[in-house]
Amino acid sequence: MPIVPHVSPARWRSRIYPGNLAQMRTVRADLRADLAGYDKDLIETVTLCASEMVANAVEHTRSGEEGGRVVRALFRSGPEMLRLVVVDDGAQETSPTIPRQRTEEEWACAERGRGLLMVDASASTWGTYPVVPFPFCAELGTAVWAEFGLGGDVL
Fold this sequence. Notes:
30% of the residues lie in helices and 23% in strands. It is built from four helices and five strands; from the N terminus they run βααββααββ. A hairpin with a 2-residue loop joins β2 (69-78) and β3.
């Protein structure tokens, strides 16, 4: 999937959170405050996706280690498009992917692995890119992004 750069300056300031799941309430509250005035369904969809993306960063990268952080950015990537970006502190594993190779029985009993499926179903589009696009810097972090259509409710 190609990297899709943003085309407009950031509207909201980026936020940095300690890399632990106890921060999720703050992440959600900040996002709802930042999006105040937008359609309520959009706010809830973006908040849900942000929750999954931040939780993945905490659980699957160095962001969840002692002193780890997660960065959340939010901006308009087009006249009717909102982009959410979550940046982690670097890989422990590989880039985020949807676990598509599970059988129906495996999905029925799986306790994890649905977060990116939910992002895939909720966002207009999503993807990942390395924070520093050099092969020898791959462990420096990954940005996971998702875009959401604003429709007619543009502020």
